[in-house]
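Field log, afternoon session.

UNIT: design team B
ACTIVITY: writing a sequence onto a fixed backbone
BACKBONE:
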C-alpha cells in the first residue's frame, strides 16, 4: 500500500468511530457498557451452520481434511497435535449479545460444564473421539472467566487477541 493510505487510514477510521460510532466493516460492536469489539468473521462463524452440518455439504469437511493431513504427517514420521484457538465471541458471547454471562452459545449453561463454545469445539470434540491428539482450550478459558473481575479478561476488549493472562493459560494447557 502507498504511504499516503497508510498515513491517512488510521486517522479516517478514528474520525468515523468518534463521529458515527462505526467500528468499520470488519468489526461487530458488542453489547453493554464496555462495547467490546469483535471480528465479524468470528461472529459469523458462530451463527452460520456448522461445517459439520448437512447444510454445509458443499464445503470441505474440516474433520476429513484434518484426518488426511494427519495421515500425510504420519507417513513422514510426524505426529499431529490439534489445537483450535477459540475466537473471542466463543468465550465471551455475553459481551457480544448482552445475555447472561452463564448463557453460552445456543443458550447452553456453561456454569454446568456444557460445551457451548460453538462449531470449533464441536470439531475438536469430533477429532478427539476419532483418537487424534487434541488440546481443548475452550473449557479452560470458559472456566477462567470467573476470575476476570480480579485478574482481568482473557481477551483484549478492542482486539481479537488474548491478553497476557489468556496467552499464559493457553500456553500452560498446550504444554
Amino acid at each position: 500500500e502507498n504511504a499516503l493510505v497508510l498515513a491517512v487510514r488510521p486517522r479516517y477510521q478514528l474520525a468515523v468511530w468518534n463521529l458515527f460510532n462505526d467500528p468499520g466493516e470488519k468489526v461487530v460492536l458488542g453489547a453493554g457498557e464496555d462495547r467490546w469489539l469483535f471480528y465479524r468473521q468470528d461472529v459469523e462463524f458462530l451463527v452460520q451452520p456448522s461445517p459439520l452440518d448437512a447444510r454445509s455439504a458443499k464445503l470441505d469437511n474440516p474433520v476429513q481434511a484434518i484426518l488426511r493431513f494427519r495421515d500425510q504427517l504420519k507417513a513422514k514420521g510426524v505426529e499431529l497435535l490439534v489445537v483450535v484457538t477459540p475466537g473471542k465471541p466463543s468465550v465471551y458471547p455475553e459481551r457480544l449479545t448482552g445475555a447472561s454471562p452463564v448463557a453460552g452459545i445456543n443458550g447452553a449453561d456453561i456454569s454446568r460444564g456444557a460445551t457451548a463454545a460453538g462449531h470449533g469445539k464441536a470439531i475438536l470434540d469430533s477429532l478427539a473421539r476419532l483418537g487424534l491428539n487434541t488440546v481443548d482450550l475452550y473449557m479452560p478459558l470458559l472456566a477462567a472467566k470467573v476470575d476476570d473481575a480480579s485478574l482481568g479478561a482473557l481477551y483484549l476488549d478492542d482486539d481479537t487477541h488474548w491478553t497476557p493472562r489468556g496467552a499464559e493459560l493457553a500456553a500452560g494447557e498446550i504444554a
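LOG NOTE: Residues 3-20 form the longest helix (18 residues).
NEXT ACTIVITY: expression trials, pending approval
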